[in-house]
């Protein structure tokens, strides 16, 4: 048989699921013609159908290096997407768009950009998302998927009304469009804080969905958890987990649902499963026992605020090991190193690109420390202060302001953020000196406030932030990392938290178990901070009167 006949025979074998026989034929043909892109692509398709995705990638990569035809590029893009190589897939789909302006490619590109915006880097991909959703909409103004992706892009670009308008347009075209109902649910969450309506939308999305309900069960579970309807939240979390028992996002959501109820053991039942899946390369997980001749490695997970919050448990751990090695963000390295210098067996290591784990006998992630040492939410240590501030002054003159949270996930940050203009009644009180500790603020945010000096422009790491806080008598801030730092330093802090707040603040409305120096001002009316700002303004004016 010639090459064409052998290829046809191999295709017939694949149709009958005789993959091993077909593989022998294709590998033999590649030996005969190693640069034949058709044979290389057919071999890749064999492995794709055989569910051997890595081998499929290998042969399509080889074919692509020789010829960038539409068929080869498309299949390679699909494979990269399946392997979660999103940036590589995005590049390939863009190349396909140069070959052919297919609607499918616009949908693929905008889907990837939405995913990258949500889970990778909002600032990096936001403009591209805006550009491609607009281009797609201009070319295909009647396609419901293009319209929906434009709606999603508009929401992430802060065009809230436009996002809602186009989402409803997609639903008008197809009232059973499950993805659009799910997005309308998110709009009700993000824009209006209307969890009841959000839940109704999610239920319709579930009703009309013909594919995977796992993300929809997760979304509705999160919504019920936010409204403290924990019974329904757990019902949907369990349904989601049944479909995907090892999904770390679902496990985290379920853990936080229990944490919010102060159910420490049940929360960690799921949280430790979440971290073991998220960090599978950590070996010999520590169970909390003492090993005086061994080394413990702690991987600091989560964000800056969480590292500050959980670092309080280090003194307990230091007593149990000969050596403790802990990875921390470089921005926190100097602060932690200086603060814990009295513990010579603790070694802080900066998390840097390409860094490898040190040698160790046992390992744990930082956020699992309370569970390992059995310190539940009724026994939170060092709530008065555990990062040195050397501050004794009690009267208030210098006030720090922070109004934006730094997380890229819209679900966790949008309601934590406050526009600086809402602080005007406070900043305009002339008897105080006001200082911004908001990292990344623009000059436009400052120019109309003569009584607000920018300290954050000179911050290089959290040591600089801590030094600035030492001269602050009161910090007024949203729920962000600087609130944790101020609390850890014992700095008097007024923290504004939204109606549906993070689990760490439980059902607190005034004080928190984590930090004695923090006073909570919890939002009474969703999307409005007027009452809370007035309350703080009244406190500051009363102090002047006294």
* Rg (CA only): 27 Å
Count the strands? 10
Estimated share of beta-strand residues: 5-15%
Number of domains: 4
Distance between the termini: 100 Å
Query: Which class of secondary structure composition applies to the elements?
Result: alpha/beta
Task: Kindly report the spatial arrangement of strands forming the biggest sheet.
Answer: 7-6-5-8-9-10
Tell the overall outline: globular
What's the tally of helices? Answer: 25
Helicity, as a percent range: 40-55%
Biggest sheet record: 6 strands, parallel
What top-tier CATH class of the largest domain fits best? Mainly Alpha
The name of the CATH superfamily of the largest domain reads: Tetratricopeptide repeat domain
Residue ranges: pLDDT <50 for 5 or more in a row?
A: none
Overall mean pLDDT stands at: 92
Q: Examine the coordinates and then state which fold CATH places here, giving the name of the CATH topology of the largest domain.
A: Serine Threonine Protein Phosphatase 5, Tetratricopeptide repeat
Q: State the CATH architecture of the largest domain.
A: Alpha Horseshoe
Task: Write structural notes for this entry.
- The protein folds into four domains: 3-201, Tetratricopeptide repeat domain (Serine Threonine Protein Phosphatase 5, Tetratricopeptide repeat, Alpha Horseshoe); 212-278, Alpha Horseshoe (Serine Threonine Protein Phosphatase 5, Tetratricopeptide repeat), CATH 1.25.40; 291-372, 3-Layer(aba) Sandwich (Rossmann fold), CATH 3.40.50; 398-545, Glycogen Phosphorylase B (Rossmann fold, 3-Layer(aba) Sandwich).
- The strands form two sheets. The protein has a six-stranded parallel beta sheet, with helices on one face.
- Helix content is 53%, strand content 10%.
- It is of the alpha/beta class and 546 residues long.
